[in-house]
Predict the structure.
Amino acid sequence: MFAAARFVDPWRFQPNVEVYLLVGFLVAAYIYVVRVIGPKAVPSGAAVITRRHLWCFVLAMLVLFSASTWPIHQIGEDYLYFMHMIQHMMLSYLLPPLVLLATPEWLLRVLIGNGRTYRVVAFFTRPVVAAVLYNGVIMLLHVPGIVNTATVNGPLHYLLHVALVLTALLMWAPVVGPLPELRMRPAGTMIYLFLQGVVPTVPAMWLSMADNPVYRHYGQQAVRVWGISAMDDQQVAGVLMKIAGGWYMWIIMGYIYFARFGKEAADANTYRRQRPVTESVVRPG
């Protein structure tokens, strides 16, 4: 995650100590917050976290760990661009919403208060602002010069991953953020997610339709993992970005639709079925 990979044997285990330390720190911090700060911040008798918070945190740490360590990290950074794409999708599509779902409302309110910091967070999590920032980073991450440089420049590589995760957190905040006043209504959320699935199709189509490898680093790699050519690797990455990313958004939109509008339709049908019975009871004589 923090340093560019440079190994001759893609299947030789390579430890990522910095990732182990990061995940360990985050786990320790979460335990401390839940055990020490939580009981003081929530009303007496109220739950500090729910089972959902806990499971989402566990899943978030698993995603962070698996996306940032061997083999996904090493193979994605040095050998296969489609594995690099999987890594970025894990860090932008899976990790941020899980982190937000793992964060109880009281914790974020303790962290940002209700003053200037709150106003800054509220501004940057506005749907338009968050979408522009996130998609700007996505487009930046596909510029050939930046990709080629980041694979051999550890600090730049790290900063790009940080920018991806931070802007993805902003992008997902209007959807699953812990503060209800900053979340969008279901109809707006579905439109928002639909548009989020449209923008990445531009670099995805570019990758899929290019006549030559667009990234020198991957195109000139002599070691071909699984015998995948540079062009096939690039086209698979484009297909993953377009189809897998698009379907992911559609699945979430479908869940929102059936969870909200399906419930409303069911409630309306229940009301219509019960209304004649109620009227027959209250009708005089």
Summary: Residues 1-5 have pLDDT under 50 and may be disordered. The CA atoms of residues 146 and 264 lie 48 Å apart.
